[in-house]
Amino acid sequence: MSYSNPFKRDAILVGGEWIGAESGETINVTNPANGDVIGTVPKAGKAETRRAIEVAAAAFESFKATTAKERAEMLRRMHDVMKDNVDVLAELLTIEMGKPLAEAKGEINIGAEYLLWFAEEARRMYGEVVPSPWADRRILTRKEPIGVVGAITPWNFPSSMLARKIGPAIAAGCTSVCKPASQTPYSALAWGVIGERAGLPEGVINIVTGSASEIGKELCSNETVRKITFTGSTPVGRTLLKQCAGTVKKTSMELGGNAPFIVFNSADIDAAVEGAMAAKYRNSGQTCVCVNRFYVQSKIYNEFCEKLAKKASQLKVGDGTEDGTQQGPLIGEKAVETVEAFIEDATKKGGEILTGGKRHALGHSFFEPTVIKNAKKSMKFTSDEIFGPIAPIYRFTKEEDVIARANDTIYGLACYFYTQDLGQAFRVMEGLEYGLVGINEGIITTPEVPFGGVKQSGLGSEGGSQGIDEYLETKYVNIGGLGV
Ligand code: NAP
Fold first, then answer.
1. How many CA atoms lie within 13 Å of 110's alpha carbon, on the beta-carbon side?
2. 312 CB burial (10 A radius; 0-12, 13-18, 19+)
3. Which of 90, 462, 112, 103 lies closest to 278 in space, CA to CA?
4. How many CB atoms lie within 10 A of CB 266?
5. Looking at 91, 121, 218, 254, which residue is catalytic?
6. What pLDDT shows up at residue 1?
7. Which of 46, 156, 410 for mutating ligand 1's site (highest number of atoms within 8 Å of CB)?
8. Closest Cα to residue 435, out of 421, 424, 425, 449?
9. How many CB atoms lie within 10 A of CB 409?
10. Residue 90 and residue 92: Cα distance in Å, rounded?
11. Which DSSP category does 448 fall into?
């Protein structure tokens, strides 16, 4: 049964036109809460992507000449369209992705906040007048938009991950070709409707759904595309980096994580449990900053495990559109199988399930919030991203050991720790090799700050004063013959 929503489009957007794939082929989009097909989107490929790049390049010629103030106003109007339609946009998001409506509304709201932030940043793209070493010359630098941007996004935040790319791209004066995840294309296509309602010039945002490998390859290898911004898994990020090498593109990579959450003996345990719930079970554990490994110091280990298990067992699992739901389904059957494999591996190696551990009675891709005690280094989740509602809890005794264990991963996106000891707070913060650190807080994302990982969690930052720089080039100008 097809689902209707004023922001839902079953077509791709190329140069202001909503069209199908040349082949006429489509992809089914399903609601993970009940398996219903909610619609179909075009299965586009190389030809449509190339066309979208051409129209984005044509649009760039006039868009780059708009003033920062004009672009800021466009972003503000897009922000207003989102704020006026939070409920319908959130419903569309929940229907295709599964997260509870309250979380979906939060995602739409923070996406709108990113637009506002970048509307403000657009007007602060300052260049410099550099003190000249030559008496008869003057030196300037100016910031210029990089050009056509290719943006590829995942299914877990299908709206806000694009806000963090479209917002700075427009602020800088760039045009873009976006490729959303095939499981959640509608929240991305909704960006086309938001742009239309806000009076964005045609061709500034183009959105192509379909074959990831074909679209990705064209975006990465096409010389007209000057930058690739990607949010998704580290393996796909590596592929895209290789594909971009041929045309030496600027890249931003927001990749996977393996977040540690450390609780020291001195911590306020109840506050740590609160923070743990938010940092672990939000979006059913399917976020790049979700906790992958809990490390709890010996003296408080049992108490923390029991309290977290009790809270996790009380989470209301259900269809995200129903009132009071706190955990929706996982994105699909494959995600459930992955989570089951983590649990099987852990129990074989001595992990003790305190709560959950199996598929939820609701069926489909619902899974019980799970807590596993006695986690050990040999278990799979020590090194691999879980992306599901499992909280493995490891025991530790010494501060220096836990810092080393927390850093023993290829990833370096988010980490969290709880302590009441100020000296320890600084020592541990400085020792952790991560891009984002939450101290006594489990939710830390906001548009004002740079969001980005180190090591194999990525390159570059989204948000903050740094976010717009990813879409700008610095031009140096040397003016001579000025006399002394
Ligand atoms: P994914 O499998 O890497 O897919 C992400 C996007 O890449 C989708 O649009 C996908 O398209 C596309 N894609 C897949 N293979 C491709 C290829 N060969 N060429 C070009 N594009 C390709 O990741 P996911 O499962 O959607 O998302 C989960 C991952 O994203 C996790 O690792 C998570 O940590 C990470 N993530 C990171 C951040 C961050 O800010 N660091 C934020 C959110 C998520 P199809 O859907 O059509 O396959």
1. 19
2. buried
3. 103
4. 14
5. 254
6. 57
7. 156
8. 449
9. 23
10. 5
11. T
Percent of the chain with pLDDT over 90: 99
Query: How many residues does this entry show for the chain?
Result: 484
Task: State CA 64 to chain mean position distance.
Answer: 27
Q: Which secondary structure element, helix H or strand E, spans residue 112, and what is its range?
A: helix 101-122
Q: Report whether 393 contacts 304 (CB < 8 A).
A: yes
Name the average pLDDT for the chain: 98
Pairwise CA distance, residues 293 & 291, whole Å: 6
Distance CA 313, CA 371 (A): 9
Closest CA to 295 of 268, 321, 260: 260
The letter for the amino acid at 5 is N
For residue 107, give the 3-state DSSP assignment.
Answer: helix
For the entire predicted model, the pTM comes to 0.97
| Phi, psi of 264, rounded to the nearest 5 degrees | -90, 160
Tokens of 217: 């390859």
**Catalytic annotation on 430?**
no
Phi/psi-derived region of residue 437, left when phi > 0, alpha when psi is between -120 and 50, beta in every other case: beta
- The neighbouring-strand residues paired with 19 are 12
Alpha-carbon distance 110 to 107, whole Å? 5
Residue 254: active-site member: yes
Q: Could you report how far apart the first and last alpha carbons of the chain are, in Å? A: 77
- Amino acid code (one letter) for 334: K
CA-CA distances (angstroms) from residue 434 to 54, 95, 458? 38, 33, 11
Tokens of 13: 């957007």
pLDDT at 447 over 90: yes
Q: Is the CB of 463 under 6 A from ligand 1?
A: no
258-289 tens-digit pLDDT: 999 999 999 999 999 999 999 999 999 999 99
Test site for ligand 1: of 182, 183, 211, 233, most ligand atoms within 8 A of the Cβ: 233
Residue 292: phi and psi, rounded to 5, are -105, -30
Residue ranges with strand state E in 340-471: 352-355, 370-373, 390-396, 414-418, 436-439, 458-459
